[in-house]
Amino acid sequence: MSNYQRNTSMVVCILAVIIVGAVAVGALSFYGSSWFNWNTSTTEFHFDGEVGATTGTVILDINLDAGGLSITFVDNASLLYQIDVEVQNNTLERDGNPSVTFASNTIGLDYTAAGVNITLGTGVNYTFNVDVNSGGLDVKLVNGAHVGDISLTTEASGISLVMTDDVVLVGNATFNLKTSAGGTSAVVDVPSGIGGSVECITGFGGVDITAPGWTEITSKHYESTDYNTASQTLTVIIETSIGGITAIFT
User: Fold this and answer.
1) pLDDT at 128
2) In DSSP terms, which residues pair with 109 in a beta bridge?
3) pLDDT of residue 12
4) C-beta separation of 172 from 196 below 8 A
5) d(CA 140, CA 160)
């Protein structure tokens, strides 16, 4: 039996550092060089949808060339999505207005440069296919979120993932976090009864994994003691070509 007890204060501090870092990277990518001049006027867009008669798994499919993207959950079974998009006016003149679609159980947003905040509810199961080319990506799986497989991809930006133990996982879930150049941070509290695995793959950059009570397979791969016997598993793969990885799993 492990004598480990979670240091709540430490976790809170870590989360604060992660969130501030992700927002800073996203802001820089969104505003670019205009961050330092007066031409930063923006327009905000709001999109929302209710669960209604929606059944089955809903795919969140987001493609953003540049900008900060934040995803979180609220305990609301009727909310399908609430998406707020802030776009610089010179981007609007060049690329037109952003739009959010919902068809074939897929929530879609494909745009060039924007700051995007996405709030999802708890009435359906979600999978993620999210690609932000340049900018911060901050994902919080909280408040009883129902999620399956998750793919988070960036080219030149940081990724932050936080998951609390009240999340409902769908099947044997796999989370893939991949960035070509940027730091990645994952703080994951695996729900009770689910076997966990975290594996980090790096080209150039350090890896720091904290997983009390888990088995060290290699210095970059840890598994919970029940990973090979549990009826349900969570497999997290974090990959970066250039950048450091910090992972805390409990």
Assistant:
1) 98
2) 62, 100
3) 35
4) no
5) 8
The pLDDT tens digits of the residues spanning 85-139 come to 999 999 999 999 999 999 999 999 999 999 999 999 999 999 999 999 998 999 9
- Pair 13, 6: CB distance under 8 Å: no
247: region left, alpha or beta (phi > 0 left; psi from -120 to 50 alpha): beta
What are the structure tokens assigned to 13, written together?
Answer: 């501090």
Question: Which of 180, 198, 181 has the alpha carbon at shortest distance from 189?
Answer: 198
22 Cβ contact partners less than 8 Å away, ≥ 6 residues apart: 68, 70, 136, 137, 138, 158, 159, 160
Give dist(CA 233, CA 122) in Å, integer.
21
Task: Provide CB contacts within 8 A for 89, sequence distance 6+.
Answer: 41, 42, 43
Label residue 6 exposed, middle or buried (CB < 10 Å: 0-12, 13-18, 19+). exposed
pLDDT-based confidence at residue 40 (cuts at 50, 70, 90): confident
Query: CA-CA distance, 129 to 63, in Å (whole number)?
Result: 8
In the numeric block, which tokens belong to residue 23? Answer: 């927002």
Name the token pair of 237: 């793969």
User: What's the burial of 11, exposed, middle or buried (CB within 10 Å: 0-12/13-18/19+)?
Assistant: middle
Q: Say how far apart CA 135 and CA 86 lie, in whole Å.
A: 14
Angle at 181 between CA 176 and CA 185, to 5 degrees: 50
